[in-house]
Write a structure and sequence with these properties.
Length: 743
C-alpha cells in the first residue's frame, strides 16, 4: 500500500509543473473522500486569497467558490482547520503554513456528508506536505516567467594563480578528517561547461541532455532514500523543486534552443540555468531567492554527469564551505554526500555542529576568512578534531593527513570494541551513560553502542529540516522508533526547543534577531499551544503503556513548570482510552543561571532534572554559541560553571531527585570523570562518543578525584582548573581493562 506522501511524490514526478497542483488536488480529494478540492494561495502583496488550482466543481461554481474562499481565509487567519456546513454542502479548510508563514489553504468539498475528525487530521497531514510542493510550484513559475526580472549579469572573475598552502585555525566542531575539493554549496566549476566545445551534433547533444536529466532524477531518488533512513522518517518530497525543474518544459525547451544554436549539452544547460537564476535574483520574494541554490545544485548535478571525464579533480570528495553551520545545511550536505564542512562562524555547540557529529561529518566552525581565502576546487583538509583547516596543502601535508585519517579510522575501530563494555570506572563506579539523540541514525547508534537509554531526545530536527511542521501522526511514527530501539526506556523526550540557531527562517515562528536571548523554546510554545499539544499527544500515543518522560527546556521559573504541567495535562486529557490516563514523569532542564538558583525548588516540583551545559555556559558567561569569537572549548572549565554544577547537583540531591548532565561537556573524558566525582547521576552524550567515553572512564579511579574536587573547585580560572584536572587524571592510577569479550 502506498502512503499519501508517496502518491503526492508520484504526482510531482509525473506531471509538468503547471499541472502539479491540479493533479495534487485530485489526489487529495480522493484521499479525504471529497468531491472536489481546491488550493487557495495568499498573494505576497495583497491580503486576499486567490484560487490557484482545483479539482472538481468547487473550482467552477461562483457561489461555492466564494464560500470556499471564505472558509479558507478563516482557516488561515486562525491557523487551524475551519468548516462551513450548510447542508447539503460541507466545506473543510486547513491552513498551509511554512514555518509560521501563512501560505494558503486547502479546501475540500463534499455535497453529501460532513467530514469526520479522521478526515480532518488526514487533510492537515496533507497540508503539511503540500507546503513544500506549493512553494516549489511558485518557484518554477518565477523561473519560467521571462518578465519576472531583469537578466542577471553574472560576473566571472579570473583569480589568477592560486597562492600556496594556508592553514586556518577554527573551532573543532565534529571530529574526523576530511580531504576534498572546496565547493561553496555548488559542486561544479561551471566555467568548464561554458568553455565546452565538444559539440557532437544536434541529436547526440539532445540525447546527452536527456541522459543528464535522467541521471539527475535517479540521484534524487537515492538522496531521498538516504535522507529518509538518516532522519528515520519519510522524506519523499524534500527534493520536490528539483523534480519539478527536471519536468519543466520551459527549461527543457530553453536548453534545446541552446543546442540548436550549436551549444553542447553542458553549455546549453549551464546557459539556460544561468538565465533562470538571473530571473530569480530579480524576484523580490526572499523565499524564491533562497531557491537559487536549488537551481545551482541541480545544474551542478546534471553537469557532473555530463562532464565527468573532463572535469574530475584528483579529489573526488567535496568539502563544503559556508558562512555558517545551520542545521538545515548540515542535513543537506549529508544527503548530498559531502565529506566535510568548514564554516566561517559558529561554535562546537551550535546545533549544526551537533548534527554534524550525529551524522559523522567532520566539521570545523569559526574558520576565520575561509570564504575569502579559498577558491572553488581548491584542495582542503578539514581536521575536525583539532579545528585546523589546511587549504591547498603541500604534498607533504596531504600525505601527513592521509596517514592521520587512517589512524583516526583505526582508533575508531578500537573504540568500537568498547561498545560492549559497561560504563564503569577502574574502581568499580557504574555510570549511567545515556544518549543524546535527534535523528534516526542517532537512535540506531545509541542502541549499537549500548546506551543506558535516551537521556535527551532533541525533537526539533523533524520540524526544521522540512518545509512544514510534522503532524501529530507523523510525530507518533517518529517517536515510536525510539521505543522500538529502547522498549524499556528510559526515553526522555524534550519539548520542542525552537529558536536560536534551530530556527533558521527570517519569518514565522521563533523569528528574532537575537533568538538565543529571549524569544525561544517554551516561550514560543506559550504562543503556539497547539504545537505543544500535538507533540505531547504524539509522545503519549507513541509511549502507549510504556514509561513516558517529558523534559521541559529553558525553565527559568517555577511558574514555567506549573504552566507547562497544565498544558501537558490538558493535552493528554484530550486523548481517549488508556493513554488519556497517562501521568508522565516531568523533568526540568537547568540551563539558565536562574534555574541554578532555583535548583532545589525545581527539584521539589518535578520528577527529574537535566543540566544543559551548552546553554548554561552561554547564558552564564555571556558567550553566544554561534559566535566563535566569544566561545572557547575552555569555557567548560570555568570555575563559575563547575561550581554551579556542583551546587545544582547537591541541591537536587537534597530533594531526593536525580540529575543528569546532557550538555557537550559530558562527552569530554576529563570533565565526565569530574562530573561523576561530584555526584552526577547520569551523563547523556552523543551516541558516537559513547565507546570512547567508556574506554577513558574505564581507566579512571573516581575516589581520588572526589577527594581532589574541593581543590579543583577552588581554582581561580579555567586554565588552572584544566591543569589541575589533567594533573589529577595523570596522577590517578590507570587501569587498563581489555574490552568486554577480550578478557
Ligand atoms: C544544552 O543546552 O546543553 C542542551 C543539552 O540543549 P541544546 O544543546 O539542545 O540547547
Ligand atoms: Mg539547551
Amino acid at each position: 500500500m502506498t502512503t499519501i506522501l508517496e502518491r503526492l511524490s508520484r504526482v510531482v514526478e509525473s506531471h509538468v509543473p503547471v499541472q502539479v497542483l491540479d493533479a495534487a488536488s485530485k489526489t487529495i480529494a480522493a484521499e479525504v473522500d471529497a468531491d472536489s478540492c481546491s488550493i487557495f494561495l495568499k498573494e505576497s502583496d495583497s491580503p486576499g486569497l486567490h484560487l490557484r488550482s482545483g479539482f472538481g466543481h468547487l473550482a467552477q461554481g461562483e457561489v461555492l467558490k466564494s464560500a470556499a474562499r471564505a472558509v479558507a481565509k478563516e482557516a488561515l487567519d486562525q491557523m487551524r482547520p475551519a468548516r462551513a456546513e450548510a447542508p447539503p454542502d460541507s466545506l473543510l479548510a486547513v491552513p498551509m503554513v511554512l514555518r509560521g508563514r501563512p501560505l494558503g489553504a486547502i479546501v475540500a468539498h463534499a455535497p453529501a456528508h460532513s467530514f469526520s475528525a479522521e478526515q480532518e487530521r488526514t487533510l492537515c497531514a496533507i497540508a503539511a506536505h503540500m507546503v513544500g510542493v506549493v512553494e516549489s510550484a511558485r518557484f518554477i513559475e518565477a523561473v519560467d516567467n521571462e518578465d519576472a526580472a531583469e537578466r542577471y549579469a553574472g560576473v566571472h572573475t579570473d583569480a589568477g594563480e592560486p597562492p600556496g598552502e594556508l592553514v586556518l585555525q577554527g573551532t573543532p566542531a565534529s571530529p574526523g578528517i576530511a580531504i576534498g575539493a572546496a565547493v561553496f554549496r555548488r559542486a561544479f566549476p561551471r566555467e568548464l561547461a561554458r568553455r565546452d566545445v565538444s559539440f557532437l551534433g544536434k541529436e547526440p547533444e539532445r540525447q546527452r541532455v536527456r541522459d543528464g536529466f535522467e541521471k539527475a532524477r535517479n540521484d534524487i531518488g537515492k538522496l531521498q532514500a538516504a535522507a529518509t533512513s538518516d532522519l528515520g522518517e519519510d522524506q519523499a518530497l524534500i527534493f520536490s523543486s528539483h523534480l519539478m525543474l527536471l519536468n519543466d518544459p520551459v527549461l527543457l525547451s530553453r536548453v534545446e534552443e541552446g543546442v540548436d544554436r550549436g551549444k553542447t549539452a553542458a553549455g546549453a544547460i549551464e546557459a539556460a540555468i544561468d538565465e533562470f537564476e538571473g530571473r530569480l535574483r530579480g524576484v523580490r520574494d526572499p523565499y524564491i531567492q533562497e531557491r537559487v541554490e536549488d537551481l545551482e545544485d541541480l545544474c551542478s548535478r546534471i553537469l557532473g554527469h555530463l562532464m565527468v571525464s573532463k572535469s574530475q579533480s584528483p579529489l573526488l570528495a567535496q568539502v563544503v564551505l559556508s558562512p555558517r553551520i545551520a542545521p538545515s545545511l548540515v542535513m543537506e550536505i549529508k544527503t548530498r554526500g559531502a565529506a566535510g564542512i568548514v564554516a566561517e562562524t559558529g561554535s562546537a555547540t551550535s546545533h549544526g555542529a551537533l548534527l554534524a557529529r550525529s551524522l559523522g561529518v567532520p566539521a570545523v566552525t569559526g574558520a576565520p576568512d575561509v570564504m575569502r581565502s579559498v577558491l572553488a576546487g581548491d584542495a582542503v583538509i578539514v581536521d575536525g578534531t583539532t579545528g585546523r583547516v589546511v587549504v591547498r596543502p603541500s604534498p607533504e601535508s596531504l600525505a601527513e593527513y592521509q596517514q592521520q585519517a587512517q589512524d583516526v579510522e583505526r582508533r575508531r575501530t578500537e573504540f568500537i570494541r568498547y561498545r560492549e563494555h559497561p560504563p564503569e570506572t577502574a574502581d568499580g563506579v557504574r555510570i549511567r551513560l545515556q544518549a543524546n539523540v535527534a535523528l534516526g541514525v542517532d537512535i540506531a547508534l545509541a542502541k549499537e553502542n549500548r546506551a543506558d537509554g535516551i537521556g535527551l531526545y532533541r525533537t526539533e530536527f523533524p520540524f526544521i529540516v522540512r518545509e512544514g511542521f510534522p503532524t501529530r501522526d507523523e510525530q507518533v511514527e517518529i517517536y515510536r522508533k525510539a521505543y522500538d530501539s529502547f522498549p524499556g526506556g528510559p526515553i526522555t523526550f524534550r519539548l520542542l526547543d525552537l529558536a536560536g540557531d534551530k530556527f533558521v527562517p527570517t519569518t514565522g515562528v521563533g523569528a528574532s534577531a537575537s533568538a538565543f536571548h529571549g524569544y525561544r523554546s517554551i516561550r514560543v510554545l506559550y504562543d503556539y499551544p497547539h504545537l505543544l499539544r500535538d507533540q505531547v499527544q504524539a509522545f503519549a500515543i507513541a509511549a502507549g503503556d510504556r514509561p513516558l518522560r517529558i523534559l521541559i527546556p529553558m525553565v527559568s521559573s517555577l511558574d514555567d513548570v506549573s504552566r507547562i504541567r497544565l498544558m501537558i495535562e490538558s493535552a493528554i486529557g484530550e486523548l481517549s482510552g488508556v493513554v488519556a490516563q497517562r501521568q508522565p514523569q516531568l523533568g526540568a532542564m537547568i540551563e539558565v543561571p536562574a534555574a541554578v538558583e532555583l535548583a532545589a525548588d525545581l527539584a521539589a516540583a518535578v520528577d527529574f532534572l537535566s543540566i544543559g551545559t551548552n546553554d548554561l555556559i552561554q547564558y552564564a558567561l555571556v558567550v553566544d554559541r554561534e559566535d566563535s569569537r566569544m566561545t572557547s572549548p575552555r569555557d567548560a572549565y570555568h570555575p563559575a560553571i563547575l561550581r554551579m554544577l556542583q551546587r545544582t547537583i547537591s541541591a537536587v540531591h537534597s530533594e531526593g531527585k536525580e540529575v543528569c548532565v546532557c550538555g557537550e561537556m559530558a562527552a569530554r573524558p576529563d570533565l565526565a570523570a569530574f562530573l561523576v566525582a561530584i555526584g552526577v547521576d547520569a551523563l547523556s552524550v552523543s551516541p558516537r562518543a559513547i565507546p570512547e567515553l567508556k574506554q577513558s572512564l574505564a581507566a579512571v579511579h573516581v575516589k581520588p578525584l572526589e577527594r581532589a574536587s574541593v581543590h579543583i573547585l577552588a581554582c581561580q580560572n579555567a586554565t588552572e582548573i584544566e591543569a589541575a584536572l589533567r594533573a589529577c587524571m595523570d596522577d590517578l592510577p590507570k587501569a587498563h581493562i581489555a574490552p568486554h569479550g577480550d578478557r
